[in-house]
Amino acid sequence: MPAYWMISNRALENGVPGSTRGPVTYWVSDAGPLNIFTNWKQVSSADFQTMLAGAADQFPALDQGSNEQQSHVTFFIHGYNNGWQDAAQRYQQLCADLYSGPESLGLCISFDWPSQGSVLGYLPDRVHARDCANDLADVFSRLYDWLLGKQQAAMTDPKNTCKAKVSVISHSMGNYVMQKALASAWTRKNQPLSSSLINQLVMVAADVDNDLFDADGSDASDGDAVANLTYRITALYSGRDAVLGASAGLKHFGVRRLGRSGLATNPPANADNIWEVDCSSFFPPSVGGMDIHSAYFGPYGTLPLMRDILRGLDRSVLDTLGETQGDAWPAS
């Protein structure tokens, strides 16, 4: 089975993925460097789905008491200011850190959308993010139908139970892609209230409104969709994130960024599956405000936290183990 997986809606420009939206394509790779496009092989949607189902079926079958050891199929949605090569490199490093070796969480799929890859491209990136959400919604909708089918098959024969959890790691404006995609998928599926699609959603430095999950928030209907389709949502944020400070200034909406300020209401009313972690203390003073936006993927203790969040450790356990507090920067 492939080592790396990518779903992309970047148009090819001069033979490589560019910064404009194109048709959705499916890619696999057995070896890096993944930022060299010739190391990827395009496959059909049907073949991608068949290989993915086959890979997930190779995960170990565990009893219900071993939930934290269950393998994952994780979608990674990169953020703003990531050209294709940067996004591919980050994806490869994330796979090396969390999805390889004896402690592997399972497998990870990159959803690669056409960010401009430049600071000046911020507002066009937001437009791209909104446009790209429908493509990701198509993926989520098909996955939802497949998971429902697996549940029904398991009622007949427990051997048909899905061996994988579905999880998402979304970074920066990739959270806006995720938000709009899940809102669309939820609407298409008649707003289900009893069947989750995503087990763990980790919103890293999320460039979305921090009142997303409030009943009177500007995107409250989107927040309902994300909360209802997800078992648990964790927002990782830092007030030291200068990139999201600039993001809020560009929009002038009067609404703070979730990835900079945390949840507007903690916990949100009627949504006990949402919580936050202030990660400011993980990053040493030498990590500047512009760098903190991506430092969650660096060697600062936040990746082990992400691993145990994805595994499903209870938030009280994570607090007790000291995993939600770093020691590299004084507490504010």
Summarize the structure in words.
The chain is an alpha/beta fold and 332 residues long. It has one domain: Rossmann fold, CATH 3.40.50.1820. It contains ten helices and nine strands. Strands 3-2-1-5-4-6-7-8-9 form a nine-stranded mixed β-sheet, with helices on both faces. Helix 2 links the parallel strand 4 (71-77) and strand 5 (106-112). Helix 3 (122-156) packs across helix 4 and helix 4 (174-188) packs across helix 5. The longest helix has 35 residues, at 122-156. The radius of gyration is 19 Å and the shape is globular. The termini are far apart. The mean pLDDT is 88.
In short:
This protein has 10 helices and 9 strands.
List the helices and strands and how they pair.
Layout: E1 4-13, E2 16-29, E3 41-43, H1 45-57, E4 71-77, H2 84-98, E5 106-112, H3 122-156, E6 164-171, H4 174-188, E7 198-204, H5 220-228, E8 230-237, H6 242-251, H7 258-261, E9 274-278, H8 289-295, H9 302-311, H10 315-320
Parallel strand pairs: 1-5, 4-5, 4-6, 6-7, 7-8, 8-9
Antiparallel strand pairs: 1-2, 2-3
Helix pairs in contact: 3-4, 4-5
